[in-house]
Write a structure and sequence with these properties.
Family: Belongs to the LysR transcriptional regulatory family.
Strand content: 15-25%
Distance between the termini: 65 Å
CATH superfamily of the largest domain: Periplasmic binding protein-like II
Organism: Pseudodonghicola flavimaris
Helix content: 40-55%
Protein name: LysR substrate-binding domain-containing protein
Keywords: DNA-binding, Transcription, Transcription regulation
Radius of gyration: 31 Å
Pfam families: HTH_1, LysR_substrate
Structural class: alpha/beta
Number of domains: 3
């Protein structure tokens, strides 16, 4: 069945003018010129065969036929707007922007993503590399972090996912030596200590938690944590690592953890931005991360 509809593109201009009582106010609301709104209303009036507005002092008021159209147009635009918002929300809920370090992404998260997508095929993760430079809040919905020794996440937005465990790792046979007795029974020395930007204080935090005092001849700073871990595998120094990041290297014998790992309860966690707190996709991601984080603890 064919429909003889009025010019639909003119209805927002008509409805805004009817609601605001002024072409000028309607044009400002719609971000259009006074002339463009007037032209659309005139075109709509001509199509429907009569005036829709009449002068009322310095403003406009609806004619009886204009009032009939307003009731129908307002209801239609309200319903259309609600449907559009629902559709946009469904589309927005499909994607989650997840900020994560390149090391955690490559060594732990990405190998597990097939399991996530098998469970949640309608959700797509868009990874944002957090790296040494801090992301803006607008760049991500969820920030995933194991680096509780560094801190920096806003406490109000944090969601614990599981424990973290930190330990010194080095290549087998790396010259890690116990220091002279006068330095204490837990004193050790290493030629080179490996670290990365914004994480220099993590060594001090680890030594306090583990009770191991470590001296080094020099400190070598790498741009990314995975580079420091690669240097440790190559026998270039000792690095500090969260256990999840080096499980494969430990199992293959490429690295050893001579002092074991210090557990930090709830050290593996996420920060959820306020705009993403109530989204179904974010809740599903966090549930899966809790399960994945607990595997192997």
């Amino acid at each position: 069945m064919s429909r003889r509809l009025p010019p639909l593109s003119a209805l927002p201009a008509f409805e805004a003018t009817a609601r605001r009582g002024s072409v000028t106010a309607a044009a400002e609301e719609l971000g259009r010129t006074h002339s463009a709104v007037s032209k659309q209303i005139r075109h709509l009036s001509e199509d429907l065969g009569g005036d829709l507005f009449e002068k009322a002092g310095t403003g406009l008021r609806l004619t009886p036929r204009g009032e009939r159209l307003r009731r129908s147009a307002t209801a239609m635009l309200d319903e259309l707007g609600a449907v559009a918002e629902a559709l946009r929300a469904e589309q927005d809920d499909r994607f989650v922007d997840l900020a994560v370090s390149a090391t955690l992404a490559s060594r732990w998260l990405i190998p597990r993503l097939p399991e996530f997508y098998a469970r949640q095929p309608d959700i797509e993760l868009r990874l944002r590399m957090s790296g040494p430079q801090q992301l803006r809040d607008s760049d991500f919905d969820v920030l995933l972090s194991y680096d509780r020794l560094r801190g920096g996440l806003r406490e109000a937005d944090q969601r614990p996912l599981g424990q973290a465990a930190y330990g010194l790792v080095c290549a087998p046979g790396y010259p890690l030596e116990q220091a002279a007795p006068e330095q204490g029974p837990e004193g050790w020395s290493a030629p080179v200590r490996l670290t990365q930007p914004n994480a220099l204080q993590t060594w001090g935090e680890w030594m306090q938690r583990s009770g191991v005092a470590l001296r080094s001849g020099r400190e070598e700073v790498h741009a990314h944590h995975f580079l420091a871990l690669g240097a440790a595998v190559a026998g270039l120094g000792v690095a500090l690592a969260e256990r999840r990041l080096v499980t494969g290297d430990l199992a293959a014998g490429r690295l050893t953890a001579p002092f074991g790992f210090v557990t930090v309860p709830d050290g593996f966690r996420a920060a959820v931005m306020p705009r993403a707190r109530d989204r179904r996709s974010v809740a599903a991601l966090l549930d899966w991360l809790r399960t994945a984080a607990g595997q192997g603890d």
